[in-house]
Amino acid sequence: MASMSQKRVLLVEDDKTMNMLLGKQLEKFGFAVTKGFSGREALEAMSKEVFDAILLDLILPEVDGFEVMQKKGETKCAGVPFYVLTNLGSEDSLTRARALGAKEVWVKTMVSPKDVIGKMKQDLAA
User: Fold this and answer.
1) Can you give the pLDDT at residue 125?
2) How far is Cα 10 from Cα 95, in angstroms, rounded to an integer?
3) For residue 116, which of 12, 43, 85, 123 sits 20 to 30 Å off, Cα-Cα?
4) How far is 52 from 56, CA to CA, in rounded Å?
5) What is the mean pLDDT of residues 34-57?
């Protein structure tokens, strides 16, 4: 059971291994984690509850991460910060994610999960 002070993160990553690894790291850092594997699952979760942060992949089945960010205003998570972790390394994709309100955008091959989660923890503690 999550304590009241525990920050809640929605983790949306369709790669099951990466989802499991990131989920374990987030929990190790003290986050309560809700997992989604598609953009549709993300939007459903965001419509039901408010999270402190959302860690989102952009390449997702059904509804991609860009569309999830575009539709966040239609959910309970309109003011929740998005952190994007993606394999899309093109400047266009990264710029588009930032334009849609991503607080941080990382390319998976260029950052460690520990660094991503450390930055999230630092931001959410502020």
Assistant:
1) 87
2) 22
3) 43
4) 13
5) 97
Whether 29 has a pLDDT exceeding 80, the answer reads yes
Q: What is the mean pLDDT of residues 86-114?
A: 94
102 three-class SS: strand
* Other beta carbons less than 10 A from residue 7's beta carbon: 19
Q: Tally the domains of the chain.
A: 1
In a domain, 1, yes or no: no
Per-residue pLDDT at 4 exceeds 70: no
Structure tokens at 53: 């942060």
Domain assignment present for residue 2? The answer is no
Q: Which residue segment(s) compose the domain that 83 sits in?
A: 8-125
Q: Cα Rg for the chain, rounded, in angstroms? A: 13
Q: Does the residue 38 lie in any domain?
A: yes
d(CA 111, CA 118): 11
The CATH number given to whatever domain includes residue 61 is 3.40.50.2300
